[in-house]
């Protein structure tokens, strides 16, 4: 599987969420950032034996099938992350963090879990992968609650895919 990575926060790794205006109701305190990029912006053309993030020789392929996508953001401010195919308007992946409510493993109070989006075969109970050519335009939208300011927030996408040729219609 190819490793793909993109930072909605303009490759700064972390960014600051400004506090919303005084007197704004907490439900209306939403800070949003957006990034527009192409599949080829994640392409790493280098030797896969020397770097696990390399894609190797991509010249014999037309694009990718996305297999896994996971947004990364921090509690307590993270509201959602969305990844769209901007050419078609198709929502590829949507994350709504699940907040822990107990002291049980994987449900820890004060922590969030963000289940990834997965694609595969229908026999595995998954949605078939969507073909994305190298020049496919993608849009990432990240929303945070900004009742209070927050430093060191992230909005990155960690993805995996397979090199493929465009399917015949």
Please give a structural write-up.
- By secondary structure, the protein is mainly beta.
- It has strands spanning 2-7, 15-17, 30-38, 63-72, 78-85, 90-95, 98-99, 112-113, 117-118, 131-133, 137-145, 150-153, 156-164.
- The strands form four sheets. Strands 1, 4, 9, 10 and 13 form a five-stranded antiparallel β-sheet that branches.
- It is globular and about 55 Å long.
- The model has no long low-confidence stretch (mean pLDDT 91).
Question: Approximately what portion of the residues adopt beta-strand conformation?
Answer: 35-45%
Terminal CA distance reads 25 Å
Secondary-structure class: mainly beta
Radius of gyration: 18 Å
**Helicity, as a percent range:** under 10%
Quantity of strands, as a count: 13
Instruction: Describe the main β-sheet briefly.
Output: 5 strands, antiparallel
Whole-number average pLDDT? 91
Shape: globular
Number of helices: 0
> Low-confidence spans: pLDDT under 50, at least 5 residues?
none
What is the ordering of alpha helices and beta strands?
EEEEEEEEEEEEE
Tags for this model:
single chain, 169 residues, mainly beta, four-stranded antiparallel β-sheet, 43% strand, globular
């Amino acid at each position: 599987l190819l490793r793909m990575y993109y930072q909605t926060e303009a490759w700064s790794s972390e960014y600051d969420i400004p506090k919303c205006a005084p007197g704004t109701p907490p439900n209306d305190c939403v800070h949003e950032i957006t990034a527009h990029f192409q599949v080829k912006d994640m392409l790493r053309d280098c030797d896969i034996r020397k770097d696990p993030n390399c894609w190797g020789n991509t010249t014999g392929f037309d694009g990718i099938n996305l297999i896994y996508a996971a947004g990364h953001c921090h509690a307590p401010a993270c509201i959602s992350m969305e990844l769209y195919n901007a050419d078609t308007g198709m929502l590829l992946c949507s994350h709504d963090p699940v907040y822990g409510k107990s002291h049980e493993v994987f449900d820890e109070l004060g922590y969030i879990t963000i289940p990834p989006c997965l694609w595969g075969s229908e026999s595995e109970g998954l949605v078939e992968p969507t073909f994305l050519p190298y020049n496919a335009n993608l849009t990432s939208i990240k929303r945070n609650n900004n009742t209070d300011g927050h430093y060191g927030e992230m909005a990155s996408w960690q993805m995996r895919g397979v090199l493929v040729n465009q399917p015949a219609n």
